[in-house]
Design a protein that fits this description.
The chain is α/β, with parallel strands linked by helices. Helix content is about 40%, strand content about 20%. α6 crosses α8. It holds the Pfam family Trans_reg_C.
Length: about 230
């Protein structure tokens, strides 16, 4: 799941991002509402949830939510704020926030609320994903292959898992290397241009070592495709 974190308090933003990354989320952290809107309008990134502070410079979290809903964007939003009065909660929810977390909070509650948003929102990452003979277990970074029992189990690194999952979620579509790079590496990483090809080689080598056919094909000059007919 790719998360847009909008928090102008540097220490809190850094702490939240560290926790989310440790939970295997891809996180883009920005510190004002205008930057956040630029990220949301980008053709390169598809966010699955936004964590937004209410009191932001340039464009407030409340205004950001209102703008999202005005543009018919259904992105789930978890609002963070020190404003904990009932009228503030009502204003945040009426502006389009899906949930509301009052500061100070513990990180365990933040993660629990993200999981709750995930359960309520069908477009968010499921616990498992199955296409053809391949099943991904999001909780354990495990790929299983084969319709017979027991299937072949293949442990994946976080980035291998993210790459396989992203193409699997977009099966039979050609996804450019640039799109994959911007989607699976956060804005601060600035990965080298051939990082997708290098990661793809590692993934294919691992599948081959386990005797598993790779359903991801390279389309010269266009990108990669998870081919369900393979």
């Amino acid at each position: 799941m790719r998360i847009l974190l909008v928090e102008d308090e540097a220490d809190l933003g850094r702490a939240i991002k560290q926790v989310l990354v440790s939970e295997k989320y891809v996180v883009d952290w920005v510190q004002d509402g205008v930057q956040a809107w630029d990220c949301l309008e980008s053709q390169w990134t598809d966010y699955t949830v936004a964590i937004v502070d209410w009191l932001l410079p340039e464009l407030s979290g409340l205004q950001l939510c209102q703008r999202l809903r005005l543009h018919q964007n259904p992105l789930p939003v978890l609002m963070l704020t020190a404003l904990g009065q009932p009228e503030n909660r009502v204003a945040g929810l009426d502006a389009g926030a899906d949930d509301y977390l009052v500061k100070p909070f513990v990180m365990e509650e933040l993660l629990a609320r993200l999981r709750a948003l995930q359960r309520r929102s069908p477009q968010l990452q499921p616990q498992t994903l199955t296409v053809g003979g391949f099943t991904l277990d999001y909780g354990n970074n495990i790929l299983s292959f084969g319709l017979s029992q027991p299937p072949q189990l293949i442990p994946l690194t976080v980035k291998e898992f993210q790459l396989f999952a992203y193409l699997m979620q977009n099966c039979d579509r050609i996804i450019s290397g640039s799109k994959i790079r911007y989607q699976l590496w956060d804005l601060d990483e600035e990965p080298i241009s051939n990082v997708v090809a290098a990661q793809m080689r590692l993934l294919r080598r691992k599948l081959a070592n386990y005797g598993c056919p790779c359903p991801i094909e390279t389309i010269p000059g266009q990108g990669y495709r998870f081919n369900t007919s393979r």
